[in-house]
Amino acid sequence: MMQTTGLLLVNGRWRDGGGSTFDSIDPASGDSLWQGKAANREDVHEAFTAARAAFDDWSDRAHGEREALLRAYARTLEQRKEALAALIAREVGKPLWEARTEVAAMIGKIELSIRAYGLRTGSTEAAGGHVLRHKPHGVVAVFGPYNFPGHLPNGHIVPALLAGNCVLFKPSEQTPAVGEAMVACWQAAGLPAAVLQLLQGERATGEALAAHQELDGLFFTGSSRTGAILHRQFAGMSEKILALELGGNNPLIVRPVENLDAAIHDVVQSAFLTSGQRCTCARRLIVPDDAFGRRFVARLSEVVEHLRIGAWNDEPQPFMGPVISAAVARQLLDTQAGLIGLGAKVVLPMRTLERGAAFVTPGLLDASDCEMPDEEHFGPLLKIIRVASLADAITVANRTRYGLSAGFIGDDEAEYRQYWRRSRAGIVNWNRPTTGASGAFPFGGIGASGNHRASAFYAADYCAYPVASGESAHPQLPEKLAPGLNL
Ligand SMILES: NC(=O)c1ccc[n+]([C@@H]2O[C@H](COP(=O)([O-])OP(=O)(O)OC[C@H]3O[C@@H](n4cnc5c(N)ncnc54)[C@H](O)[C@@H]3O)[C@@H](O)[C@H]2O)c1
Ligand SMILES: O=CCC[C@H](NC(=O)CCC(=O)O)C(=O)O
């Protein structure tokens, strides 16, 4: 297992924070796996001062030099990949097989970001001495969520550094160990001091970072609730760039298919991968209210009931692990009880396992006859809604203020095209899970799922701003002077 220290990295020095102590708990065992002190306002201020001082040198470096540092970081990740995967798995609770895919995505992000920078934010020249270049914003903060503690902050940090920004990184307070291990990889790769700094902490640290006057931009992945707070906080500050990657209440429409089990597979991957803790997870399954729909739900229930649930290192490996904490498991069970109180019928109950308080089984509720709140329930709880027609399915799918991912399962292409035209989401899939988006494409949502700054391949766009220049090595008189001008 990778060793971590519980320290901050400020101006190239690992040291204690001045704030209160907090722990990271392995959700499977309940053991503390990391303990450290949060960064307080003074720590945050010191990090901003150091980042500002480091910025000119870092942004002046040749682009190729920054690319080389990114590749050195990728090599370090490659060398440490097994240990890093084990740490991710243990801290989040996801199975080792899945944590390995997270590390692979982190490594893959390097070449994708280099390609994206060239295609979306590189330099171009046009006739007449017109040149387009891009410049970094300056000092930016990255706040990460707990469900992908490596891959998602990495998806902001890599393109931000490549563009020449200095970054202050605050991992989720639930996954500080992975945040530390990731920053240690950058340091081992030779990144100069203060170009990337680590500020551990809870909400107060995030608030101090977001409110600092030296901040030029904030790249945030997390809940829509926190995203809305930050959006309000940044109102009237058009000089600061804010990229929000938020949650969803994602619909998945099911229509007749020949291969029932292939369709069930896609639903399970959509709703229960990572114990339902992916922003792209399907939350609402919209099925026909007929014999096919009933057969579909019966088979789904049978398959879901037998999903293997276990700890990250169990053998054989489980499909899914615990949720992030016992507190979150309790909240999910309360949510289930609340929905039942509103009239939802239990198809398969979510319940706690004796294995530990953070282990819950996946639940299925039939919510056809009740008014459900338009909320993201971030866990393995799928609501089923029966509808009479495709038109009704589309109406129900769009009945949300969110717009992250959406899916359509069905053999009829014309029906899918009809849905695609009416859908309101940044990711719309056909006969594929709603999860597992490609890093080679933009990734982001509309509505309450973001602020129109898609990440993944388009992260390059919010990491640099365009500068258009008309250039000439020497002043030159034009062939024709303006009327009334004599030279
Ligand atoms: N769209 C995406 O790309 C994407 C990806 C992963 C997760 N998510 C979403 O993230 C959520 C799960 O992650 P989470 O629970 O860690 O999110 P969260 O919003 O609780 O926390 C995210 C980060 O914000 C910080 N924070 C919380 N309140 C703050 C405040 N008032 N000011 C400044 N910082 C504050 C936290 O400390 C943490 O670092 C889900 O809603 C999920 O859908 C979205
Ligand atoms: O939890 C939210 C992210 C889910 C994940 N999305 C990506 O990995 C986007 C691609 C990228 O950022 O490179 C998914 O779709 O499962």
TrEMBL record:
What EC designation does it have? Answer: 1.2.1.71
Q: Which Pfam families match?
A: Aldedh
- One MF term in the entry's GO annotations: succinylglutamate-semialdehyde dehydrogenase activity
Going by the UniProt record, its keywords in alphabetical order are: Arginine metabolism, NAD, Oxidoreductase
For the keyword Oxidoreductase, the answer is yes
Residues in the active site?
245, 279
Q: Extract the Gene3D superfamilies matched here.
A: Aldehyde Dehydrogenase, Chain A, domain 1, Aldehyde Dehydrogenase, Chain A, domain 2
Task: Identify its protein family.
Answer: Belongs to the aldehyde dehydrogenase family. AstD subfamily.
Database matches in HAMAP family? Aldedh_AstD (MF_01174)
Q: What is this protein called?
A: N-succinylglutamate 5-semialdehyde dehydrogenase
- Which organism's genome codes for this protein? Solimonas terrae
Lineage of this protein's species?
A: Bacteria, Pseudomonadati, Pseudomonadota, Gammaproteobacteria, Nevskiales
